[in-house]
Write a structure and sequence with these properties.
Layout (H helix, E strand, L loop, with lengths): L1 H63 L7 H19 L37
Helix pairs in contact: 1-2
Length: about 130
């Protein structure tokens, strides 16, 4: 009878320690997920900033272009660049390279304010 009781106690101790180890592992995984999500958001911001700079450069190319002389390399580069620029403009990047706030208003339209530096949102929609 003592052996059965000791065995049951040992079983419950092992079960509890296993549960604590699993909780610790879950906590570690949740921390890692949060770190990866933060890194992903930072990379998205880097990409948006690069796309904004691309728009500025495209505008400068347009201003410098005389329209009479086009090199082959400009023709090859211009079409992909213009399609990306058009896409980014539709995503809310202004022609001066700043990014529009990505928040949606109550009316369902995109906020018209510029996003704060290093963020996707204006001062009002900052999260």
């Amino acid at each position: 009878m003592k052996n059965l009781f000791l065995s049951a106690c040992l079983f419950f101790v092992l079960l509890l320690s296993s549960s604590f180890a699993q909780d610790d592992k879950i906590s570690q995984l949740e921390t890692k997920i949060n770190q990866l999500e933060k890194a992903l958001n930072e990379q998205k911001d880097v990409i948006n900033n690069l796309m904004a700079k691309l728009i500025v450069l495209d505008n400068k190319i347009d201003k410098l272009s005389t329209g009479t002389v086009e090199s082959e390399s400009k023709t090859v580069i211009d079409e992909p660049v213009k399609s990306v620029v058009k896409e980014k403009k539709s995503e809310g990047i202004n022609t001066d390279g700043t990014m529009r706030c990505q928040a949606t208003t109550k009316k369902g339209t995109q906020c018209k304010r510029n996003a704060q530096t290093g963020s996707r949102y204006c001062w009002q929609h900052q999260r």
